[in-house]
């Protein structure tokens, strides 16, 4: 009865980089309204063209993409990508009151990617159902799951080693 759809939706703010930088510099508190006038995802959801019936909690944090890795500077490369809300959490329930948003925010202190992670905490009303249906219809492959974890750890360790060997860059100083 509930659906959560989350990840990098790749929707952007449809405004020039300089304009978005100006809007961000004028934000007071956590009112992101001036940015959301230009948010592609919010606008197409309002007109009902996609994600019909899905909702998103109000956003009270700055754009989570695109950062220079390791610091709090939006894209300083020659591409100068516009800061945007690409990572989102959408949800849908048969009954709106069955999902309550407890928290929806970004993790601004995690700087290992050009995206800042977005987290959501929800209180969800679960209705009892049948318990004789096997989870995942018995198709869960533990070996495949463990191999995925091993690959992610290997990639993370290689990235950390590369960052450790690099004392500075033209973008940020790493200590």
From TrEMBL:
Matches recorded under Pfam families: Exo_endo_phos2 (PF22669)
SUPFAM superfamilies listed in its UniProt record: DNase I-like
InterPro entries assigned: Endo/exonu/phosph_ase_sf, INPP5E, IPPc
GO annotation (BP), single: phosphatidylinositol dephosphorylation
GO cellular component: axoneme; Golgi apparatus; nucleus
Residue ranges constituting the Inositol polyphosphate-related phosphatase domain according to the UniProt record: 2-120
Segment forming the signal sequence: none
Domain of life (superkingdom): Eukaryota
GO molecular-function term, one example from the UniProt record: inositol-polyphosphate 5-phosphatase activity
Protein name per Swiss-Prot or TrEMBL: Inositol polyphosphate-related phosphatase domain-containing protein
Protein species of origin: Tetraodon nigroviridis (Spotted green pufferfish)
